[in-house]
Structures are given as structure tokens and as C-alpha cells.
Design a protein that fits this description.
- The protein has about 160 residues and is mostly helical.
- About 75% of the residues lie in helices and about 0% in strands.
- The protein is built from five helices and no strands.
- The chain starts with 8 loop residues before the first helix and ends in a 13-residue tail after the last helix.
């Protein structure tokens, strides 16, 4: 498989779509905690629109991340920018592995916890949230570093297709 020059329209769309869905979850996901606490007290969950939305968006994130991984492995990804040190390449590689692992683990622990009535998974879901936020902020900081400090055009790869 040859290495593409950039990301495809689909890869770019999935990247920004998943980013928007994760932001939605982080901003509007607190009702889920209230529903879980209510379920633990009464044995009945209040299934409000926001609870259903959180579940539906979580499932969508999981599906779209799996789709992204299929595309990543079948199509490949562009090479690191010229001048990337071996150490930086290693950080980038493991950073992406961590990001993908979290984007899979967070919805999976939520679904297993909610539908399997597994308190440990619900707790893990809650513990993973701040970790995901930190990794996302690192991802954003790296993109901004490339854009404004290195000025290597890396961010353009997620703005428009190059192949």
C-alpha cells in the first residue's frame, strides 16, 4: 500500500464529525450521571431526551471511530512532516494509539456499564473522561504548534483532501 499525500474527504469528515460528537458528549453528558444515580436509588432510570441523546451519540462515536480505524488501516495515513525527529514520531504514534483507544474505551465502558448494570464500568467511564480531555487537549496543542510555530502546513491535511 502506498502512503497517501493527505487524508481523504471521508477521513476528514469523520475526524471533524467525531470531534463534534465528543464535544457534544462532554458539554451535555452530565444528565447521564443523574440518571445513573437515580437508577441506583430506585431501580428505575429516568430516560429523558438528553439521556437517549447521550446513548445515541456514544454509539455513533463508537461506530464512526471503528470506521475511521478501518480507513486508517486500509488507506493509510500521510507521512510525518519533513524534519520530524524519531522521538517526535514515536510520541505522535503513541499519542494516536492512545486517542483511538480512549475513543473506543469511553463509549464501550459507558454502554457496558449502562446496559449491563455494571457499576465498575460506569466508574471507569467516568475516570476515562478527564483522561480523554487531556489527550484531546494535547492533540489540539500539537496541531496548533504545527500551525503557528513550525508553520509546516500539517493542519491543512485535516482541512482539505490532498489526494
Amino acid at each position: 500500500m502506498s502512503q497517501p499525500k493527505g487524508y481523504s474527504v471521508l477521513q476528514i469528515g469523520l475526524h471533524w464529525g467525531v470531534a463534534a460528537l465528543i464535544l457534544f458528549q462532554l458539554v451535555l453528558g452530565e444528565d447521564m450521571s443523574h440518571a445513573w444515580r437515580g437508577f441506583n436509588k430506585t431501580g428505575v432510570a429516568e430516560m429523558s431526551l438528553s439521556v437517549w441523546a447521550h446513548i445515541g451519540v456514544g454509539v455513533a462515536i463508537l461506530a464512526f471511530v471503528l470506521w475511521r480505524l478501518v480507513l486508517r488501516f486500509s488507506r493509510g495515513v500521510p507521512a510525518d512532516p519533513a524534519g520530524t525527529s524519531p522521538m517526535m514520531a514515536l510520541v505522535v504514534h503513541w499519542g494516536h494509539i492512545g486517542l483511538y483507544a480512549l475513543m473506543l474505551a469511553v463509549p464501550l465502558t459507558g454502554l457496558i456499564g449502562w446496559y449491563g448494570n455494571q457499576s465498575l464500568m460506569v466508574e471507569a467511564h467516568g475516570w476515562l473522561k478527564p483522561v480523554l480531555i487531556v489527550v484531546i487537549l494535547g492533540h489540539i496543542a500539537a496541531a496548533l504548534y504545527h500551525q503557528f510555530i513550525l508553520k509546516d502546513g500539517l493542519l491543512l491535511r485535516m482541512k482539505r483532501p490532498q489526494d
